[in-house]
Amino acid sequence: MGIERLFIANRGEIAVRIVRAAQSLGIHTIQAHSEADAEMLAVRMADEAVCIGPAQAAKSYLDVDAVVKAAKDAGADAVHPGYGFLAESPAFARAVVEAGMIFVGPSADTIQSMGDKVSARQAAGTAGVPVVPGSDGRVDDMETAAEIAERIGYPVMIKASAGGGGRGIRIARTPEDLAKFAPQARQEAQAAFGDGGIYIEKVIPQPRHIEVQVLADGTRAVHCFERECSLQRRRQKVWEEAPAFGLPEATRQAMCDAAVDLAEAVEYLGAGTVEYLYDARADKFYFIEMNTRIQVEHPVTEMITGLDLVALMIRVAGGEPLPVSQEEITLNGHAIEVRLNAEDPLKKFMPFPGVVGTLDLPESDGIRVDHFLYKGYQIPPFYDSLIGKLIVHAPTREAAIDKMAGALDAVRIDGLKTTIPLHKALAQSADVRAGRIHTQWLEPWLDAGNLTTDQTGGAS
């Protein structure tokens, strides 16, 4: 079958990444853009570009009808959704296919099944993947919620069934908390996702967040090892590593095998990520969700395996059987990625959509920068503040942290405030270097005043 003309329904650094991968395969690229993104780097790089609407995402990148029509009118035979926006929308995937094009990702049914946290938990359980103790399905009344919480024991987490990005989540430590927070979680979930469904899970104290990258062709799946994503602020990842540190080999293998089993059970197609909470004290892991798209942090996996995940997902979408076997995927060294956001970390991470001045980014052996910047570019104020990712690779974790510290010192992005000071401070942290971190570590560390101008050498 093959793909000849690929429509890229996203923006920013992931759009640049997809353009490069597609062009490396000899595929003609068509870049979608809003009116505010007419000058973005991916537009300049692509073979052609199409405006899909005004600056507001709801009227451009999130408008299913507008995106599908633009792709069809441009003569595309496939659409790549990237991450965010419509990437995990079953309605979008279905509309693309119904319009006679290939959706670069899993089927709409798989996206829907894995996107609903309750059905994803059920699928994981059926595939033999450990899940966090909690409700078997949606919880529709307070009496049932209270019974479940009492059975599994407080504290419990109230989570949105259709949630993501940390929205619709509350922690209840008492029955009174549950009665107060469950309606709030429902309301937030309804507003954010158009679905007010919730479920209840046991809180795992101070867990680590470990995820496994999978690739599949609808029949066979392989894993590309795991990533450590425990450094999070407001449930958003800020620093990612591959592989996870200090993980017993048997546990790593069990995590990876379980991810492959789940991917094959749901007939997964493309690149996906199976996410776990890991209780290091008990050496137990629990499935939390599956992301049915390419992840922001995919480059660390590419650095330790030598694979081009984006190119591979395009190839299997075009009908190729998975071109790599599990035995061919080997782990080499350690990689770290930090997310560069146009925010001022010294002013409560206030967004800073300025104009890029002098731009100097380190690019050498073992250092990679995925971004969409150029001198004179105005960062639009309408979208996520992510402007790029700095990735390093070294033989060991200690060497990778040292390399990251040096690479951060070499970055120069004039005209913007960025999160570089945060990452410099993290690279200096004894806890980070020793691996004494978990998903709730970062925010108290920030609240304790560990991020200062003096420590980081300024916030520019």
Automatic annotation (TrEMBL):
Chain's role: This protein is a component of the acetyl coenzyme A carboxylase complex; first, biotin carboxylase catalyzes the carboxylation of the carrier protein and then the transcarboxylase transfers the carboxyl group to form malonyl-CoA.
Cited PANTHER family: BIOTIN CARBOXYLASE, CHLOROPLASTIC, PYRUVATE CARBOXYLASE SUBUNIT A
ATP-grasp domain sequence ranges: 121-318
UniProt xrefs under SMART domains: Biotin_carb_C
Record InterPro entries: ACC_Biotin_Carboxylase (IPR051602), ATP-grasp (IPR011761), BC-like_N (IPR005481), Biotin_carboxylation_dom (IPR011764), Biotin_COase_C (IPR005482), CPAse_ATP-bd (IPR005479), PreATP-grasp_dom_sf (IPR016185), Rudment_hybrid_motif (IPR011054)
EC number(s) given by UniProt: 6.3.4.14
Signal peptide: none
Ranges for domain Biotin carboxylation: 2-447
Reaction it catalyzes: N(6)-biotinyl-L-lysyl-[protein] + hydrogencarbonate + ATP = N(6)-carboxybiotinyl-L-lysyl-[protein] + ADP + phosphate + H(+)
Keywords tagged on the record: ATP-binding, Biotin, Ligase, Nucleotide-binding
Full protein name: biotin carboxylase
GO molecular function: ATP binding; biotin carboxylase activity; metal ion binding
